[in-house]
Amino acid sequence: MNADTNVRVVLEVFAAIEQRDAARFLAHTHPRVSICWPPSLPWNDGVPGRPDPHGQHPRSWLEVWAPLQPTAAERQMHPEVIAAANDRVVVRWHQRGHSPTGLSFDGQVLGLYQVREGRLARAQMFYFDTDAVKRFLGDAAGQGPPSRPAGPPAAGR
Q: Nearest to residue 19, comparing CAs of 100, 96, 77?
């Protein structure tokens, strides 16, 4: 597969996530897809509906974020392809959320994606500010008053 084809596969996965289309997501991911998140974040490498290697159904990224993304606006990730070569694609995207108490989050993520056999085989995410993500999720869950704005500082600050 060439880099352009791999970019299309990765962008299909983003579209499936934004539209919460599980069938489309599974159609574009390899049966043994590996999704790697920063270990400090409160979800794991679980894919909804798929057990982990120990037979457990771990809490996935979607299970954490779905309640915090009630509208299409929060689900929009605005993926921007930064680079693509051979079987790898690098994408910068936005993680957005809105809590029931009115807190908002908009943070950037850089993802490294590997395509094998025409399907996403590996995804590794690098959040620009994992502490801001954890603060937002803690505040959204009512684990204390917001201590600082949940997102990264605005440009110019």
A: 77
